[in-house]
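Changelog note: in this version the structure field was regenerated for every chain. One regenerated record is shown below for reference.
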Amino acid sequence: MEKVPIRSSNRYTADAKEAPTMTRNLLLTLKETADILRISYARAAELARTGLLPGVVHIGRQVRINADSLEAFIASGGKALPGGWRRKEA
């Protein structure tokens, strides 16, 4: 079957009736981020709040994580907590 351009975008598809779909989300929810990092939702929210998680985007009260920033964060090995993993009591 010949590839037919879709009028609404410059993307091509194998079938003219097939709608273009986004293969990858640009912004991830905290739940999706937690699943990718294999941590709890609460820990992902804490990392986003403290600034240890890159690419945090606030949309109203919702928090999203930029997928490209998260991918780069994982590829670079992440970012350690200042002072190590043990928290100092105030």
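Spot check on this record: The radius of gyration is 19 Å. The first helix runs from residue 30 to 37.
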